[in-house]
Design goal:
about 160 residues
């Protein structure tokens, strides 16, 4: 009976030590990507139900903050290059938006960030969806976006530095 209790105690202590080691490895070797702070993003429309939007480039400034793997933030539209020309948005001419999303931690491939942005555009709200891959070495996010505005989708690049 005494041997059985020692075996159970050794198993419990070994399990606790192993759990602590897995926790340390996860937190120190494989942390969540740091996406807190200011980002500059560029959307390039590849497909749209409205032909003048094809090839359009939109620029935004985004501020993100994280709580665990949950991502929140705000956006402002700052740039547009379309068939109507190139223009920057300043002050009250900027459209604001609200960001919600999450970080998907992957151990054997790139981490992903999924974001949903509701933009209070001129005349109506619009919704954007982003699926981004995290590139830690270059400190960038790249991926695809889609929006209900004229059924657009395309490529997006996020950087800490202005484009």
């Amino acid at each position: 009976m005494e041997s059985f209790l020692w075996n159970v105690l050794a198993t419990v202590i070994g399990g606790c030590i192993l759990t602590f080691l897995f926790f340390l490895i996860r937190e120190k070797c494989f942390p969540l990507p740091d996406v807190n702070g200011m980002w500059h993003l560029k959307n390039i429309t590849e497909n749209s139900a409205y032909n003048p939007y094809k090839g359009m480039t939109l620029g935004y400034t985004v501020i993100l903050w994280c709580d665990g793997n949950k991502v929140s933030g705000t956006t402002e539209k700052v740039y547009e290059c379309s068939v109507n020309g190139e223009r920057e948005f300043i002050g009250t001419n900027r459209c604001r938006g609200v960001v919600e999303g999450f970080i998907q931690k992957n151990y054997f491939s790139k981490d992903k960030i999924v974001l949903h942005i509701v933009e209070d555009g001129f005349g109506r709200e619009s919704t954007y969806s982003y699926e981004l891959d995290v590139y830690k070495k270059t400190n960038t996010l790249e991926g695809r976006f889609s929006t209900m505005v004229a059924d657009q989708d395309g490529y997006t690049t996020w950087s800490r530095e202005k484009f």
